[in-house]
């Protein structure tokens, strides 16, 4: 049981809520903006079209985040979930976009979202495939898969002109990491809860003093921009719909694992109906995002790390994060300011957040019954998940379909754990003969002493 500063239904004071919501926004904004940037660059879209994609992604993510946290009827898990454009769809989006253009990406995303919407109806049955051993593996793999991302951030990233692994980048990341650790460990109340955003702000000021911040994006960003639904139009190529449907199936597995991790972080029991509401919101939210001219959305695992680290599980805090993301879409200049945060600052904070997810997974695994069968499930699943995480080129010679399905360590770890849990037979606890031989004399000696 995690000790929480604020429970799921708590409403912190206004200033505290704003600060904590901003913390979640900072953790998510880079990922939300990165997807349209990567897709736009791959399709060689002009700058104004990429900006439109980014604004749409922020608006869509903000609205769906609010629905996921607050809930509307059967839609929304009503837990602190940040929704954002997902890298799980990047491969499919680029392949569809290169052949048919952006309208096909959005049309295929809208049509294929039915896979997730229908899939949500089966979550009570799917939940039974996730006993403690499988859940622990999935949560651990989420953290392990995210750590390399934080390491790349800490090293300075792979952007043109970045000096990967320079002493300056590593020094700033280490400074932010130590600052966050000190604030979490020795801070009290709001200081401890907002350790990530405070640590990042201090690191940002250090980078400003060192002249590392490029404000040209802020100067060029428009102050206000209205939403542009169906800006690109839509087309529905069959191949594109199939590719996106596969990506949705992969995302369903990852999102289920993320929800499990969130349940552990917020002390919430994840029932089938609860998962169904969350998955339904992912599907409906992605359909809505497509209408808003945005790539599909999914639950962000990195924000589970924020919850684990800070002990703030209030869904009302994260609902405000959704409102902030929506405003960032209406006022692109706000998002442009956040984008100026250097990657080493994100890396120092991210390493702490993602490692906390690993810690949560290890705690779940520690409560699993220590049998040979469970040991095999956990070892093989984590090993296979790490294989594609640390060596993604492992799949480079395989068909595109295989790479699409098994390109994520989270998905591989989850699928291997689920399959092994179904295939390996349950066996009674084995008794060691040596233990029996040792126990007999001990019992015999005890009885002799009692008789004497």
UniProtKB/TrEMBL annotation:
Keywords: Cell membrane, Membrane, Transmembrane, Transmembrane helix, Transport. One of its GO terms (molecular function) is xanthine transmembrane transporter activity. Residues 432-452 are annotated as: Disordered. The keyword Transport applies. Signal peptide: none annotated. The chain crosses the membrane at residues 12-38, 50-67, 79-98, 104-122, 129-151, 163-184, 191-212, 232-250, 317-339, 345-364, 376-394, 406-424. Pfam families: Xan_ur_permease. It is found in: Cell membrane. It is a multi-pass membrane protein. One of its GO terms (cellular component) is plasma membrane. PROSITE patterns: XANTH_URACIL_PERMASE. Belongs to the nucleobase:cation symporter-2 (NCS2) (TC 2.A.40) family. This is Purine permease. It comes from Rugamonas aquatica.
């Amino acid at each position: 049981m995690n000790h929480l500063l604020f429970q799921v239904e708590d409403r912190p004071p206004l200033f505290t809520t704003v600060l904590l919501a901003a913390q979640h926004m900072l953790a998510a904004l880079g990922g939300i903006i990165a997807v349209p940037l990567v897709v736009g660059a791959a399709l060689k879209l002009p700058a104004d079209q990429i900006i439109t994609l980014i604004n749409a992604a922020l608006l869509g993510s903000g609205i769906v985040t609010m629905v996921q946290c607050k809930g509307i009827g059967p839609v929304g898990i009503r837990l602190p979930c940040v929704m954002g454009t997902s890298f799980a769809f990047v491969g499919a989006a680029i392949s569809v976009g290169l052949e048919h253009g952006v309208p096909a990406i959005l049309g295929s995303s809208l049509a294929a979202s039915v896979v997730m919407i229908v899939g949500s109806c089966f979550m009570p049955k799917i939940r039974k495939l996730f006993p403690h051993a499988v859940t622990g593996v999935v949560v651990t793999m989420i953290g392990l898969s995210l750590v390399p991302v934080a390491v790349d951030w800490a090293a300075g990233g792979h952007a043109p002109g970045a000096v990967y692994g320079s002493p300056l980048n590593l020094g700033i990341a280490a400074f932010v990491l130590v600052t966050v650790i000190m604030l979490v460990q020795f801070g009290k109340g709001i200081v401890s809860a907002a350790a990530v955003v405070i640590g990042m702000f201090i690191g940002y000021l250090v980078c400003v003093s060192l002249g590392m911040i490029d404000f040209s994006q802020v100067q060029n960003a428009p102050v206000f921009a209205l939403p542009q639904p169906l800006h690109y139009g839509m087309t529905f190529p069959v191949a594109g719909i199939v590719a996106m449907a596969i990506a949705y199936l992969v995302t369903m597995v990852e999102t289920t694992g993320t929800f499990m991790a969130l349940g552990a972080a917020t002390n919430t029991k994840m029932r089938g109906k609860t998962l169904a509401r969350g998955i339904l919101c992912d599907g409906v939210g992605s359909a809505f995002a497509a209408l808003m001219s945005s790539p599909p959305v999914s639950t962000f695992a990195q924000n589970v790390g924020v919850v684990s680290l800070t002990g703030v599980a209030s869904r009302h805090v994260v609902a405000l994060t959704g409102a902030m993301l929506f405003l960032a879409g209406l006022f692109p200049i706000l998002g442009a300011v956040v984008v100026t945060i250097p990657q080493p600052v994100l890396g120092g904070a991210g390493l702490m957040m993602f490692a906390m997810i690993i810690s949560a997974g290890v705690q779940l695994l520690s409560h699993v019954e220590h049998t040979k069968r469970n040991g095999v499930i956990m070892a093989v699943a984590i090993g296979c998940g790490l294989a594609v995480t640390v060596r993604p080129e492992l799949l480079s010679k395989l068909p595109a379909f295989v790479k699409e399905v098994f390109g994520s360590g989270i998905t591989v770890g989850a699928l291997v754990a689920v399959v092994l849990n179904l295939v390996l037979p349950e066996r009674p606890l084995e008794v060691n003969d040596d233990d029996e031989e040792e126990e007999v004399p001990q019992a015999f000696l005890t009885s002799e002493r009692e008789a004497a």
